[in-house]
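Just curious: can you write whichever protein you like plus the matching structure tokens?

***
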Amino acid sequence: MLQLVIHGGAGSLEGKTAEAKNIHQSLCRIWEETFELLKKKTAEEAVIHGIRLLEDDPVFNAGTGSKLQADGEVRMSAALMDGVKKGFPV
């Protein structure tokens, strides 16, 4: 049975109804597209695609939506660990 869990980060959305709605809509769209790909491709391909979608969506604090650090720079890192191969394929 295929399963897919995604999340868009942590933080309070209390009092931010419009922002919460945008995040929920994005997560649903990304989950649906990624799950459809998971049915046809490998888990690794689907995960990488899903991460790209999350990073390309400006509502999330990653990729396109990354926040500046104290020195004004954006720093990003990502990794994918394969539990079968016991390593990092990308």
The first helix runs from residue 17 to 40. The mean pLDDT is 87. Helices lie at 17-40, 43-56.
